[in-house]
Design a protein that fits this description.
Radius of gyration: 22 Å
Structural class: alpha+beta
CATH topology of the largest domain: D-Maltodextrin-Binding Protein, domain 2
CATH class of the largest domain: Alpha Beta
Largest sheet: 7 strands, mixed
Shape: globular
Protein name: ABC transporter substrate-binding protein
Distance between the termini: 43 Å
Number of strands: 19
CATH superfamily of the largest domain: Periplasmic binding protein-like II
Oligomer: single chain
Length: 471
């Protein structure tokens, strides 16, 4: 079994994690009775790669440890970091409510469960920053097997669909089904499974489709084990991951929280400045292919990295909370009380710097040109990538350098979701122009609106671009 699918964390279910005993639990932030180091425990999801600036990459770069050494020197004490890796956000919440994790990162739906759980126990947690986000929802994707006869979400009626209940991917599934007129509770046979279990179920045929979060869909498609059925960006609703801190910890150790956020910002800057080096570091730590990491985290990637908690995300949380209440996952949650960007603001110095960052939703790691068209090619052995103005230019270059290409990326013609060029569904319009789509259903919809357009194979698209028969 591939390393990514055999993670020990992937065998722990979210439900079981939430039932961890809360008794006899000590604080994650503690000082030994002999005056030893102060331990700060960080829960993260190494393989949920749009949290890397608060987890995998942050840990690999040592930024938090560096900040704590400086803080300890000023305070006359020693800090040490204990990193705990999990497959999903649910066990992080369980450990936080048990007092065993001080700072954790997770997706928007798990964040709400984290907030609700803290409120329920009278020990509220706080959302202190954001890691990676997508303003349209493309971090979550529904995939099916390559040979599956499923063509769209409507075809899921009565089918077995694997997801992780209470996750952002589950939210995407519920909303997509709702828009298709399918009752999420009875219209499908939902399988509540961890991502790795669901991926195996899809491969074996015990699941007809899989709805999951980054990086599972991209990984399975890259391996040729799945094809995209539904692009979460079709919902047009922001999805993001963020950093939450135990309320008591944040109140007692604000300087540590701020040290973490300064470190997160340093990791974010590194990701933007050295995208391929960052992709390789994350790949080494997780067992993911670097090409998959770069699909999400690279320039014009599916994930945009910016720690500010934007008003649109707060609004999205309130909508998500309403959905979770309808599902019976939570009873109530005070989103406004949960959000606390005061620590993050302090890391920006002047208030104007934070306000400017808060207003900006453009990707700091953008390719040159129009982001709705620009593509990228990564050659084997190269330490940099090549940017192209549009998908046809990408294809033309790939056609001329087939043996040298490590990965080629193009944006969906409708949603803008970045995807592997060879896995995209290509449509050629009446004028010869080539348009890539993440899903065949999106391609069919677009084709129906453009007279004379036709779906073509990847090989045909490459040939048309190479011969100059595409604009």
């Amino acid at each position: 079994m591939p390393r990514f699918l055999s993670s020990p964390y992937a065998r722990t279910t979210a439900t079981a994690a939430l039932l961890l005993p809360l008794a006899a639990c000590g604080s994650g932030n503690s000082t030994g009775s002999d005056g030893g180091p102060v331990t700060v425990t960080v829960g993260y999801q190494s393989k949920t790669i749009n949290t890397v600036t608060a987890g995998t990459l942050l840990r690999a770069r040592g930024y938090f440890e560096r900040e704590l050494r400086a803080l300890g020197k000023r305070e006359g004490r020693t800090y040490e970091v204990k990193w705990q890796d999990y497959a999903t956000g649910a066990p992080i919440t369980a450990q936080m409510t048990a007092g065993k994790v001080d700072i954790g990162s997770m997706g928007d739906f798990p964040l709400l469960i984290n907030a609700a759980r803290g409120e329920q126990l009278g020990s509220p947690n706080r959302l202190v920053s954001v890691t990676g986000y997508n303003t349209k929802g493309a971090l979550n994707t529904i995939v099916t097997r390559p040979g599956s006869g499923l063509k769209n979400v409507e075809d899921l009626r009565g089918k077995k669909v694997s997801t992780s209940e209470g996750s952002a991917a589950d939210g995407t599934l519920v909303r997509a089904l709702g828009r298709a007129g399918i009752a999420p509770e009875s219209g499908i046979r939902k399988l509540n499974q961890q991502p790795a279990v669901g991926a195996s179920a899809l491969e074996s045929g015990s699941a007809d489709a899989l709805s999951q979060f980054v990086a599972w869909p991209g990984l399975l498609v890259h391996r040729g084990e799945a094809r995209a059925l539904y692009d979460g960006a079709e919902l047009g609703l922001p999805t993001f991951h963020g950093v939450t801190a135990r309320g008591e910890f944040a109140e007692d150790s604000p300087r540590v929280v701020r040290a973490f956020l300064r470190a997160q910002r340093a990791a974010t800057d590194y990701l933007h400045d050295e995208p391929l080096a960052a992709a390789r570091q994350v790949a080494k730590a997780t067992g993911l292919p670097p090409e998959v990491v770069h699909l999400y985290n690279g320039a014009n990637g599916i994930a945009t990295f910016d720690p500010t908690i934007k008003p649109a995300f707060v609004d999205a949380l309130k909508k998500d909370a309403s959905l979770l209440r309808k599902q019976g996952v939570i009873e109530k949650v005070d989103v406004d009380a949960f959000v606390d960007d005061s620590h993050l603001k302090s890391t920006y110095g002047k208030a104007s710097g934070y306000r400017s960052a808060l207003r900006n939703t453009s990707n700091p790691a953008a390719l040159p040109g129009d982001p709705a068209l620009a593509g990228e090619v990564w050659l084997k052995g190269a330490d940099s990538t090549r940017a192209f103005k549009d998908p046809t230019a990408v294809l033309r270059y790939v056609a001329a350098h087939r043996a040298e290409v490590r990965a080629a990326y193009v944006p969906d013609a409708k949603t803008g979701t970045r995807w592997f060029a060879e896995a995209a569904v290509w449509v050629q319009d009446a004028n010869g122009a080539l348009h890539p789509f993440v899903t065949s259903s999106a391609a069919r919809f677009w084709r129906a609106e453009h007279k004379g357009a036709r779906t073509v194979s990847y090989a045909t698209a490459l040939k048309a671009a190479a011969e100059g028969r595409a604009e």
